[in-house]
């Protein structure tokens, strides 16, 4: 892995601050693409999958800013994500031209919601959204899928979305998910992790092997959008 630098930050958020970590390639002056990542309910920015993806992204020449917001209220999470997006844009030492939003579970719900709001103002605010284990519904409560997928279904045609989900995810009924995809206007790609749970773990496979597979897919997808 190429050399990189990680800086721990306090991102202003109203009268509070959000814990964050900025990963930058050693040759950060020439970097023009950044990815923001956040965690799901009950986690933080040090969740293994986020740290692994952040390191993989920076090793491929991208900036990655991940942050912690433990609130379980989606509206609050979206406001926190917005504050981090504003902070990233304010960094004077980089010339960031492309920004991708990402997160796992509840974190990608917040990412999609903010992407939809920002796209109402500008096509260039965010280039795409990475949804790791999108929680289409709580376990056994499939009736919630319409409400949870509203922001995704209303994303504009120019938006690009990558879904990474496990085939055994108990929060993503495949039939309902495929129905949602048909209603989406955005440009969508889906990567199914065979045997993957909502936590993107696979029985019988080492965690590092699964993480490498997911990370390679995310990086390849971002590179496709950049060409």
From TrEMBL:
<feature type="domain" description="KANL3/Tex30 alpha/beta hydrolase-like">
    <location>
        <begin position="33"/>
        <end position="219"/>
    </location>
</feature>
<protein>
    <submittedName>
        <fullName>Testis expressed 30</fullName>
    </submittedName>
</protein>
<dbReference type="InterPro" id="IPR029058">
    <property type="entry name" value="AB_hydrolase_fold"/>
</dbReference>
<dbReference type="InterPro" id="IPR046879">
    <property type="entry name" value="KANL3/Tex30_Abhydrolase"/>
</dbReference>
<dbReference type="InterPro" id="IPR026555">
    <property type="entry name" value="NSL3/Tex30"/>
</dbReference>
<dbReference type="Pfam" id="PF20408">
    <property type="entry name" value="Abhydrolase_11"/>
</dbReference>
